[in-house]
Amino acid sequence: MTKYIDLLREHQPDVNKEKRSSQTTANPYSQKPEDDDQAFADIDILLEEQETPDAPLSLYAQEDPMAASWADEPQIPTPSHTGHGFDLHTWLKHIEQHLAQIFSAVHHDKPFNIHALHKQLEVLFDQIQTSPKVIDALELEINLHLQSNLNTMHHADLVQKSILMMLYTIKLGQELQLQFQELLSYTIAAMLHHLGMAMVPTDIRQKPDKLSNDEWQRIKQAPQQALHYLRKHHIQHEQLALALQQGAERYDGSGPLQLKGHDIAWVARLVSLLSMFEALIHIRPYRQRLLPRDAIREIVKRHKKEFDPKILKALIESISLYPVGTFVQLNTGEIGQVVGVHNKFPLRPIVHIHLNKQGQEIAERKIDLKKQPNLMIQKCMYEESIAELTQA
Questions:
Q1: Cα gap 56→69, rounded to integer Å
Q2: How many angstroms separate the CA atoms of 337 and 257, rounded?
Q3: Where do the domains of the chain lie, and which CATH numbers do they carry?
Q4: For the sheet containing 327-330, what is the strand order?
Q5: What is the average per-residue pLDDT within 368-376?
Q6: For residue 355, what are the β-bridge partners?
Q7: What is the 8-class DSSP label of residue 152?
Q8: What is the pTM of this model?
Q9: pLDDT in tens, 303-313
Q10: Measured in whole angstroms, how far is the alpha carbon of residue 151 from the centre of its chain?
Q11: Which pLDDT score is estimated for 277?
Q12: What is the pLDDT of residue 4?
């Protein structure tokens, strides 16, 4: 079997991606369909080698001891200011508030200005074109502040879904090297594809028990209600309309309209996958959320044939084993938050250590695991899992 380190090198991100501009051409509509069987086989290989992510760390420790002197530079995103006067923290709060206003407008059957959302996203995309690592800063900012920012916000669950759909649509689009203007359109569609859920009562959306038939019907009717809403208020967005019309379709033809494969609009194939992925990593009152890599494994294990293999493979390759913002425990027992990653060495992130193995605060320090081969990650987790870990 191929060694994990060899696999990582084979699939390491293309460094030229960080230099791409809005002129990059990779139109998914013009691309020929891949051999699906081969694509699905590639997905299985990627995940098979990730089933035991702790073991390869010892292999990494045997890599070139001079790696720290020649490998890619540490990529430590700044949570708030990312340069050129752009305050990411303030921008994210504005986008959250704008999304809350959109869902409130839908709930009260009033129009909203989709062009205003487009302009706000253009600001972010301009920053990303200047420095692609802004997306890492955004991911860290979301993990640090999203939940607290939404505590008192109406339709907080829908806003959070939109924010996460935005993040992962951009990450996946970067992996596929999509044109930025095209990706912007897909991002808006992904963020708003669940508009109709604002018409569904909160107690149904967040019900911890099994939904009744009537409640389930209300959920299923939400996309059509959203389409009716857009037409009624003359809100035009082609990709959003396609996402609403076909977002429930599945690549194997098992969706309600029984569309199959490339008969399904590309944006709908994107949204259907990311919507399930987001649901698995979203905080729910009745279950723990999955880590991104565990969510992908769940999708591949139970639903692989339902999604476009090219999009699924791109999602796998765009998600870090230890994503920025998640928490890790080292073999020393110390716990910290991932604040930076190395593209060429995804198993060796930069960690902000601040807790001991008992969960007590200790002197804060940053550790670049690429430069500390004797330190290894034993566990990846979300913040809410730290208390359970320390009690155990």
A1: 21
A2: 44
A3: 88-318 (1.10.3210.10), 321-392 (2.30.30)
A4: 361-368, 350-355, 335-340, 327-330, 377-381
A5: 92
A6: 335, 361
A7: T
A8: 0.81
A9: 999 999 999 99
A10: 21
A11: 95
A12: 32
